């Protein structure tokens, strides 16, 4: 223990001893045994009589721990509610309600070999440079219509099939033209069918995500929680990222823990319950498996060039890397989120 920690714990011990002594000095029987308690009583007598038991410390501690148990630790959404509610099965109920509403099906096992074995398939040069540049140029012209979430994270929503996610640009002519350009350049239905192995039944959510590079300006970055290893949702689903810039190791690449999509723990209510409770008890979310613990799981930074793409299973563990010094640009990625596709009754929207 270092000196500061040692002094800190001595301070706590002294405070506890002092609180107990004050409490004991309220009673004549204890004062009769200890002159020190008499001294304390003489010093604080009048106030002491009005003070609650142990100066109110137990109720303060209880309140604070209840708060910690109930809500503390800023949990990711899927573990929200705190320990007490989670022990009572809150997450299981929540997942049941969400999945019932979405009527989720499990995907058929016809996925490509790579998607099945690793949880993602990298698609080099899905679009050529010229097309990628054209999309980026149109994107830049429409920057004013983006939704800003954080100082370093914004999104231009091109299409949302879900009523749960409002598309502020649904009637914006310029953004719709950009969406049209994207759709005519990228045959996402064919890609989905080729990689995931099933026919797409509804149009995916489409947007352009921008993570700004603040590595050289001393600002707080990456507050959106996706930089922690996590799996996305309660049900199986896929996302396609098309890179609209070069993404190297220093440019906040997507990291994926190969093979972890097989865990599929979200599908099991018992493990969801266990995970949500252990999150609070052990202070971590379903964390990435350490290589020592499981040598078969290793993470891979999915670096790539303008026009490359990756289709990944969101139930595998993944996270966004950070912009590191040396990174020269913002990270711009075109997202196709096939989440709605996993619903048993998806919104059929022009596929
Ligand atoms: O931005 C990234 O690289 C990862 C984001 C993420 O976690 C997600 O889209 O599910
Ligand atoms: Fe994610």
Text of the CATH class of the largest domain: Mainly Beta
* Main sheet properties: 7 strands, antiparallel
Task: Tell me the β content.
Answer: 5-15%
Mean of the pLDDT scores? 81
Residue windows where pLDDT falls under 50 for at least 5 positions: none
Q: How many domains in all?
A: 2
Secondary-structure element order, N to C: HHHHHHHEHEEHHEEEHEEEE
Q: What is the CATH topology assignment of the largest domain?
A: Jelly Rolls
Task: Tell me what the CATH architecture of the largest domain is.
Answer: Sandwich
Question: Which small molecules are bound?
Answer: 2-oxoglutaric acid, fe (ii) ion
Radius of gyration over all CA atoms, rounded? 27 Å
Structural class per helix/strand content? alpha+beta
Number of helices: 11
Shape: elongated
């Amino acid at each position: 223990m270092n000196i500061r920690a040692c002094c800190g714990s001595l301070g706590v011990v002294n405070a506890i001893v002092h609180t107990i002594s004050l409490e004991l000095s309220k009673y004549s029987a204890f004062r009769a045994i200890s002159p020190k308690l008499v001294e304390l009583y003489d010093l604080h007598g009048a106030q002491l009589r009005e003070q609650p038991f142990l100066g109110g410390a137990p109720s303060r501690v209880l309140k604070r721990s209840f708060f910690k148990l109930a809500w503390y630790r800023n949990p990711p959404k899927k573990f929200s509610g705190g320990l007490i509610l989670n022990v009572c099965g809150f997450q299981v109920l929540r997942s049941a309600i969400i999945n019932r509403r979405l009527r989720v099906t499990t995907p058929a096992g016809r996925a490509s070999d790579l998607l099945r074995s690793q949880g993602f398939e990298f698609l080099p040069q899905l679009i050529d440079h010229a097309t990628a540049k054209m999309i980026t140029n149109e994107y830049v012209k429409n920057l004013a219509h983006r939704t800003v979430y954080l100082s370093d994270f914004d999104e231009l929503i091109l299409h949302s099939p879900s009523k749960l996610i409002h598309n502020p640009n649904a009637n914006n002519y310029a953004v719709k033209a950009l969406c049209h350009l994207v759709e005519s350049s990228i045959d996402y239905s064919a890609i989905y069918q080729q990689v995931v192995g099933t026919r797409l039944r509804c149009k995916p959510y489409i947007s352009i995500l921008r993570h700004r590079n603040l590595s050289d300006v001393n600002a707080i970055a990456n507050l959106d929680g996706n930089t922690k290893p996590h799996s996305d949702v309660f049900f199986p689903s896929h996302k396609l990222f098309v890179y609209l810039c070069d993404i190297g190791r220093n440019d906040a690449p997507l990291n994926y823990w190969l093979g972890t999509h097989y865990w599929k723990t979200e599908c099991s209510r018992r493990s969801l319950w266990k995970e949500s409770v252990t999150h609070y008890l052990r202070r971590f979310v379903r964390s990435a498996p350490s290589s020592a613990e499981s040598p078969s799981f290793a993470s891979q930074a999915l670096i790539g060039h303008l026009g490359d793409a990756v289709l990944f299973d969101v139930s595998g563990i993944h996270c966004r890397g950070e912009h590191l010094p040396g990174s020269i640009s913002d990270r711009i990625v075109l997202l196709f989120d096939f989440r709605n596709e996993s619903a048993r009754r998806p919104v059929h929207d022009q596929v």
